[in-house]
Design a protein that fits this description.
Layout (H helix, E strand, L loop, with lengths): L1 E3 L14 E4 L2 E7 L29 E9 L10 E14 L5 E2 L4 E2 L4 H7 L9 E10 L21 E4 L3 E8 L8 E2 L32 E7 L13 E7 L4 H6 L3 E7 L16 E11 L6 H8 L11 H6 L1 E5 L11 E3 L4 E7 L7 E5 L4 E3 L2 E3 L1 E4 L3 E7 L5 E7 L2 H5 L3 E7 L14 E14 L21 H4 L9 E10 L24 E4 L3 E8 L8 E2 L29 E7 L13 E7 L4 H6 L3 E7 L15 E11 L6 H9 L3 H4 L5 H4 L1 E5 L11 E3 L4 E7 L7 E5 L4 E3 L2 E3 L1 E4 L4 E6 L5 E7 L2 H5 L3 E7 L14 E15 L5 H7 L8 H4 L9 E10 L24 E4 L2 E9 L8 E2 L18 E8 L12 E7 L4 H6 L3 E7 L15 E11 L6 H8 L12 H6 L1 E5 L5
């Protein structure tokens, strides 16, 4: 068995925002077509700093880094903008009104708010000591510059234009050292404001910590290469924060917004923007007060009986996680006011931990984000979004995160649109009036009607199968059939006759009917509630007044359509003016969703959700189908949590014949009710995904659910085009939507699945079928001009995630602050940093005698297999020898594998040749760069093989883009980075690793022990976990 060590890669991840500097290179991060592309690398957590942790999911992020050498930054003539910031400790109240403003109830009388805000014997309540940045007029720090109330505990807005220099004078009035570290600007080492062992001389380390009573001046610039590009908005959203221990500093309150603008946007040396009427900065974050430096002080000051507090108690920890917007919860954020017709710029960012997956939904308006129409923004830790809005509907509107857990925990605020005197956007409606008759109907829904797992033919209730816990009926298990509510279409307002679904609509499953309209149309939806609970219909993507919103919150109004009682009806009127329709960069039809929102969490968990399509004028034919599209499919990826359904108690009584109180105590009951479904079907039971070779297919993808609903929707066998970019997957989160186009050229039966590991294992996978139908216009024929051959072997090695701990030990100085020991120590029944793994390695030829050395520049690949590459129009032959001790294979994304289904398995000692074709649809789309990144991995058991180490990079480029050695002509360097929580608990080699790398008696180790399981989740960025 050989010994391998990861090799170094420049530590540049914390540059943020997708662009950074590293060792004389200017680098851009390009997300691939794989799950979670677009997640940043800076995630606050009590684990290795700057490590991404999505523990419950596969967490796969694949980046192609394009790097070119840089010269000194070019600073065009600008102004010097001077800021005087002081760090102060304050008592911060997350709910200063003492009320759940959204529910119009006091905290004491609202159970959801009280869980976080009510002080008690062992509860802190709503007020916490924090540190915040404050702005002053000059170096005396005597006159504070007031900031708008909506900024909350965020620091003041720092603004600059391209060419400007920022001088930030920081004075620390707090009781511990802090700094200020920016994103999105250029700085020398002496103005970085980030403490870590960077080998800098001492005269460049003064910025690393400003001690209590001390001060320091930071100098930042905005050179041309940091400017917003032609495709960007006029101003880019960034942040600044303290960075001695970034997770704890930020949780303590030290963060603020930073804006960099194109030249001429700011008025002279003032802070006013000339291009908008008003701009707002909002941070969506589950502020974890358990990480704050002041936790002990907060317990002592605000808990009634501090001695009774157990800081490790899960309920206590949960009560300190404040689901806040700018530090306010449950509608307490003040002063978000604007006029109808105003040009409004929203600067949105997320910070926090792995649960900080946010979908910010602006009720009653739509947004323009980088030329695309939407009404939601997806936010993750250290992601920054600039969204433009011209509000047109007066009223007080909800702004909320649509993740179920976050809705319940109070991550919502109100913004007010006033009529004023400004002319609102015209809403000329010259199109059709489209009428729909939709009822909420109670049904018995079967998540697996065939009783079989379609890919294997096994029974869903088979003992030991992944499906068993969801489908086997038993004393404390409901099985796969549940009472649910479903939107059903009727022929007219009498609601006597259901409208029969066509064959093309069979795939909709639990989804309601597709509501379609074009720009200029009016939509009238008559809703009849045939269910036994109050329900409604709330849409995305259309214009409506308060009377037709379909949701109640305390906005000063009370409308019938907010809640339609059982056996009552209501007609909603929605319109489609031009300013809500698709933009020039959008597809002809935008995918949206409607759902019931009387109780947004329980209603959608009960099944009330459907697709909505808004199209350009002239896109729909007389039959309401898209012109030029042969097949339309609508897919909802969601973990339906039946524990949150209105019908949970009814399901317990109906199927288990018992009272709900007894069964809810069973440990596995809740998990058995979380149904990992696509359109309400699991394990291949979704019908009707049939098409012909060469069909023009539009896929309309929806997300719904809670923090676990981070989906990488993968389409096996064929590729997609989304917004002009080539992909084979789409990222979906709660209340996000995507439109993708496919022209299949590969016939057979293929999977559509969620790449998130536990979602895939637990049934979120279906099948689509491409048939050769003898059409006159099949997919374009393929001609190939060259063949490239690679020789790969799977080999078992001992992999060390952290062969050199000197950096980490210097950073944390053997203190309790070190986050690494739980992952890297092999004491107390843990395994440490060394694990047996399988890796792909390249050989010179088919004898597999001579390994091929990695060329200069590829050292950073670490555990990854070799970089494979091809141009469009070529064939790749991959000759694979399995030198490992168990069966493996090689399967690639993006390319055409002529044989449908799983690739041929290579048993130990076997040699198998895989042929991958690279047609035009495998290469870059019109809006891609010269090359697109894909991956290859073993697919005998996709989850366990990948966690065991078998994964590598593949790039496909336009014709003529590559030199003879495979390097690109248009860049100097390329880097491939895999961001993955390697879950060694799911490796094939776990038991061997326990036997070889644990100290003491390995038989005493419990593989299910919580600390042991956590210690084996290695938060990896290609090379190391330190």
């Amino acid at each position: 068995m050989s010994q391998e060590h990861p090799l170094p890669f420049p530590r540049a991840c914390a540059g943020g925002g997708g662009r950074f500097r590293a060792e004389g290179w200017q680098c851009w991060l390009f997300p691939s077509a794989l799950p979670f592309a677009g997640l940043p690398c800076e995630t606050a957590q009590v684990k290795p700093p700057k490590a991404l942790s999505l523990q419950a999911v596969m967490g796969l992020v694949w980046w192609l880094l394009l790097c070119v050498p840089t010269l000194s930054p070019i600073i065009a003539g600008g102004v010097t903008r001077v800021y005087y910031l002081g760090i102060h400790e304050v008592d911060w109240n997350y709910a200063p009104t003492g009320r759940n403003v959204l529910a119009n109830q006091s905290v004491a009388h609202n159970s959801q708010a009280a869980a976080f805000l009510q002080p008690g014997k062992d509860r802190v309540g709503s007020t916490y000591k924090k540190s915040v940045y404050k702005q002053y007029t000059d170096s005396t720090y005597t006159a504070e510059i007031p900031k708008p109330g909506w900024l909350g505990f965020l620091g003041p807005v720092i603004r600059a234009e391209v060419g400007d220099t920022l001088k930030v004078h920081l004075k620390n009035f707090a009781t511990r050292p802090y700094t200020i570290h920016p994103h999105g600007v250029f700085y020398e080492k002496d103005s970085e404001g980030s403490l870590y062992p960077d080998m800098s001389p001492q005269d460049q380390k003064k910025d690393d910590a400003v001690f209590p009573g001390g001060n320091y001046t930071y100098t930042w610039t905005i050179p041309e290469d940091h400017s917003p590009t032609a495709d960007d908005p006029n101003c880019l959203t960034w942040i600044y924060h303290s960075h001695i221990d970034a997770p704890r500093d930020i949780a303590s309150g030290l963060i603020g917004p930073l804006l960099t603008c194109k030249k001429g946007i700011l008025t002279g040396s003032s802070q006013r923007r000339q291009d908008v009427d008003v701009d707002f900065f909002l941070m969506f974050s589950v502020v974890d007060e358990n990480l704050s430096w002041y936790l002990d002080e907060n317990i002592a000051s605000f808990c009634i009986d501090p001695g009774s507090v157990d800081k490790e108690d899960e309920e206590f920890q949960e009560s300190n996680k404040m689901h806040a917007i700018n530090g306010y919860v449950f509608g307490n954020l003040p002063e978000l006011t604007m006029c109808a017709g105003d040009d409004v710029s929203w600067h949105l960012f997320g910070m926090g931990n792995e649960i900080d997956v946010h979908t910010a939904f602006f009720h009653g308006a739509t947004l323009n984000i980088r030329g695309h129409r939407t009404d939601v923004a997806s936010l993750f830790p250290a992601t920054f979004v600039t969204a433009d809005m011209i509000p047109s509907n007066p009223g007080r509107w909800l702004l909320s995160c649509q993740v179920n857990d976050h809705i319940q925990a109070g991550m919502g605020a109100l913004y007010e649109v006033r009529p004023c005197s400004r002319q609102a956007l015209p809403s000329t409606l010259e199109g059709r009036v489209r009428k729909y008759y939709i009822a909420a109907k109670e049904v018995q829904w079967d998540y697996g009607p065939s009783g079989l797992e379609q890919s294997s033919g096994r029974r869903l209730s088979e003992a030991g199968s992944p499906a068993e816990q969801y489908f086997r009926r038993s004393l404390y298990r409901i099985g796969g059939v549940y009472w649910k509510a479903k939107y059903v279409e009727y022929t007219d307002e009498s609601f006597r006759e259901e409208k029969q679904q066509s064959e093309e609509e069979k795939h909709l499953g639990i989804l309601g009917p597709v509501i379609k309209a074009e720009v200029g149309d009016t939509i009238l939806v008559t809703f009849f509630n045939k269910a036994s609970w109050p329900f409604s219909i709330q849409p995305h993507g259309v214009s409506y007044g308060k009377a037709w919103e379909g949701m109640w919150y305390h906005d000063g109004l009370s409308q019938n359509g907010m809640s339609v009682a059982p056996l009552h009806n209501f007609t909603y009127r929605w319109t489609v003016p031009r300013h809500v329709g698709p933009m020039a960069s959008d597809p002809p039809c935008l995918t949206w969703m409607y759902s019931s929102a009387v109780n947004p969490v329980k209603d959608s968990s009960s099944g009330l959700v459907g697709p909505l399509l808004i199209c350009q004028p002239g896109t729909l034919d007389d039959n309401n189908k898209q012109k030029g599209i042969d097949r339309e499919f609508y897919l909802l990826f969601s973990v339906f949590d039946e524990n949150l359904s209105w019908y949970l108690n009814a399901n317990i009584k109906y199927y288990l014949r018992m009272e709900e109180t007894s069964v809810k105590k069973d440990d596995g009951f809740k998990e058995s009710n979380r149904m990992h479904a696509i359109n309400g079907f699991m394990f291949g039971n979704l019908p009707g995904l049939d098409m012909c070779d060469g069909d023009k297919v539009s896929w309309h993808l929806l997300g719904l659910g809670s923090e676990a609903d981070v989906h990488g929707a993968v389409f096996q066998g064929n590729t997609l085009q989304m917004n002009g970019m080539r992909r084979d997957s789409a990222n979906l989160f709660p209340h996000t939507f995507a439109t993708a186009f496919m022209q299949p050229d590969n016939s057979g039966t293929f999977e559509i699945y969620c790449q998130t590991s536990n979602h895939y294992q637990y049934g979120m996978r279906e099948q689509y079928v491409v048939s050769k139908c003898g059409k006159r216009d099949p997919a374009p024929s393929r001609r190939y001009t060259g063949v490239r051959t690679y020789y790969l072997a799977a080999e078992e090695v001992v992999w060390d995630y952290a062969p050199d701990r000197s950096w980490e030990r210097e950073r944390h100085n053997h203190s309790e602050e070190s986050y690494a020991d739980v992952f890297l120590s092999n004491e107390n029944g843990l395994l440490g940093s060394r694990y047996k793994k399988a890796v792909y390695r390249e050989y010179m030829d088919g004898t597999f005698q001579t390994p091929k050395a990695r060329k200069s520049g590829d050292e950073h690949l670490g555990i990854l297999g070799p970089f494979l590459w091809a141009e469009v129009g070529e064939i790749l032959n991959v000759v694979f020898k399995n030198n490992a001790s168990r069966p493996y294979s090689v399967h690639a994304h993006g390319v055409l594998e002529p044989h449908a289904g799983q690739p041929q398995v290579a048993n130990p000692g076997d040699i198998v040749t895989y042929r991958w074709e690279v047609p035009e649809r495998s290469g870059p789309g019109p809006n891609d760069s010269a090359c697109v990144p894909w991956i290859y991995y073993s697919a005998v058991d996709t989850v366990k093989d990948m966690y065991s180490g078998l994964i590598g990079p593949l790039k496909v480029c336009r014709r003529g883009a590559l030199r003879s050695d495979g390097t690109r002509k248009d860049v100097k360097r390329e880097f491939a980075l895999l961001f993955l929580v390697f879950d060694e608990n799911q490796s094939w080699y776990l038991e061997e690793n326990v036997e070889h790398y644990s100290k003491g008696n390995h038989k005493e180790i419990s593989l299910m022990d919580e600390k042991f399981v956590e210690s084996n989740k290695m938060h990896e960025a290609t090379t190391s976990a330190d």
